[in-house]
Amino acid sequence: MADEKQRALDGARVDPDGSRLITQQGVRVDHTDDSLAAGDRGPTLLEDFHFREKVTHFDHERIPERVVHARGAGAYGHFTPYDDRLARYTAAEFLTDPSVTTPVFVRFSTVAGSRGSADTVRDVRGFATKFYTRQGNYDLVGNNFPVFFIQDGIKFPDFVHAVKPEPHNEIPQAQSAHDTFWDFVALQPETLHAVMWLMSDRAIPRSYRMMQGFGVHTFRLVTADGRGTFVKFHWKPALGTHSLVWEECQRIAGYDPDFNRRDLWEAIESGAFPEWELGVQLVEETDEFAFDFDLLDPTKIIPEERVPVLPVGRLVLDRNPDNFFAETEQVAFHTANIVPGIDFTNDPLLQARNFSYLDTQLIRLGGPNFAQIPVNRPVTEVSTNQRDGYGQQRVHRGRTSYTPNTLGGGCPVVGGDFPEVFRHYQEKVDGSKIRKRSASFADHHGQAALFWNSMSEVERTHIVAAFRFELGKVETVEIRAAVVAQLGRVHADLAAAVAEGLGLPLPDLGEPASTQSSPALSQLGQPTGTIATRKIAVLVADGVDGEGTEKILTALRERGATPETLAPRGGAVRTAHGPDLPVDRVVSTMASVLYDAVLVPCGPDSVETLAADGSVRHFVAEAFRHRKAIAAFGTGTELLAAAGIAVDDGDLVVEAGVVTTTKARDEIPDGFVDVFAQEIAKHRAWNRDTREVTA
């Protein structure tokens, strides 16, 4: 009995398998479908404690959603350092001891939208990691952009108010394409670097599993003897960094608003555990002023060509939460949750976050005891003099709740040896009390130009299109012109292209704010190779070449891909040879935007049925227009032709991401799947001319 009570106090279930209905007071009830009433048609009685408990809890099930980062998804996993290479820089055990594997919880999120908004909006993505270390909880609360929109946290309410739905009509939801946001941008040029990221493909990731993460701020690593080193944190996905295209984002929001959330969940459930590599950029304190920007400015990056990223460890997510609300919704991240060996810098945005996050948790999670919620608990002991308050789960024993004391034997005691005890990094601080931005934060256009200079032509085209779309939604012409004028101070080519699309006169154009570039900033310049977890739509109907299809499906699965058969009806389709082929999805319930590639197998009857369906032809043509890899074998090429895609006959033909062969069944060339996989791994066939095909 004592053990059961302790488990209850610790937040565990008294009835672990949930097989019995038991009230929150531990009482089993005989009925839960009708209220206690005075007669079968009489009034409900106030003494019905079960009804009161059940309905009262329901009435209070919704807690305030996060003001930002409300829409999220999370998972558990673990982090392991590669070796002790960081031991000379930090006393943080979880970063330096390869024999220690640290459990983690990671939450990904959008920023601007509410909990009910779609996953695929154009937005920054949160990438927050809670490390349950043996030295305490460490929260790396980052984003998929390495920079932020403002330099000082006092501007954060203004920024969020500007990007949120406009207050007079609560429109638009989860979008930056409206007047107030761009009015803020035009008047606050410090936003321009982050805005360049926002208008790039980085703002529309294909998957959380294919998204980089950054700590944003410059932090400090600290050794046991108190020596500090500046550090920036980077997460690099094992699957590569890939994005959607804008038209896909809009269509996916209708077909599957949970696209990224579902993708993460299904990958983990299938055993395809997402992985990232943690890397760090290290800057010695003697080099603090060696750059043409301020290390404490959160709107700036350190180009990787200047300070390479040092790989230090591996993150794997391998378990989905048991309950979304209890874990993903109630997890509380805080930039001030640090451990011995890591400390802050005087970055003014970071300093503000250290104040703000605690306030957020207090209002959202009902008081000061939110750290006792299971997902927030450290794996280490907790012993404080803090008592009472909403949500108190611990039963404290003893007479004393103050320090110093004699009645409690002086406990809990303070002090001890570093690194078991946290000690703040010591630095001299002096100066006048003043409200003034450092002059070293004054360049707002240089790194925005650096980002533009670093993009490929494809990425630049997408950035221009994004600016045209967003500013095209702005109703106030003066705001559009003001933003274009700011872009003119970044780069003349960018401003001219955006102005032309908006029908605006060119502003005064000078020299680019920077001629430097950083190839590491271009997604398309990064290596590719794997097709693991890529989803491939296989279009089939009765009469399909079952033998050839199974051969290719097996080969794709062996490479880690996830092919799904789509047919006009569910169940199974009859094959031309061999057993029936199971159907995974009904094609009318899906769309090409939900897949990474398309395969059309042979089978005259199958192809005839599919080609007669306009939605199937649209499926193929749309995938082609979005530059996805497409393959067809045997008569499957006829469906491509019916969709307006020109193909050449031959044993193995590859043209701008379209892979075809006239062979079928056991005559399919051995290299067919290899070439198809290579095209999928490229993510898009950017060299494809899509002008002749309309979806």
Q: Tell how many strands the DSSP assignment holds.
A: 19
Count of structural domains: 4
CATH superfamily of the largest domain, called what?
Catalase core domain
Structural class, by secondary structure, is alpha+beta
Poorly predicted runs are: 4-14
Q: Any idea of the CATH topology of the largest domain?
A: Catalase HpII,  Chain A, domain 1
CATH class of the largest domain: Mainly Beta
Tell me the distance between the termini. 67 Å
Which oligomeric state applies? Answer: single chain
Strand-residue proportion: 15-25%
Give the rounded overall mean pLDDT.
93
Q: How would a textbook summarize the main sheet?
A: 10 strands, antiparallel
Describe this structure in words.
By secondary structure, the protein is an alpha+beta fold. The chain has four domains: 1-28 and 50-61, no CATH class; 72-376, Catalase HpII,  Chain A, domain 1, CATH 2.40.180; 444-521, Up-down Bundle (Hemocyanin, N-terminal domain), CATH 1.20.1370.20; 535-681, 3-Layer(aba) Sandwich (Rossmann fold), CATH 3.40.50.880. 27% of the residues lie in helices and 15% in strands. It contains 19 helices and 19 strands. Strands 1, 2, 3, 4, 5, 6, 7, 8, 9 and 10 form a ten-stranded antiparallel β-sheet that branches. A seven-stranded mixed β-sheet has the order 15-12-11-16-17-19-18, sandwiched between helices. A two-stranded antiparallel sheet has the order 13-14. A hairpin with a 7-residue loop joins strand 13 and strand 14. It is globular, with a radius of gyration of 29 Å.
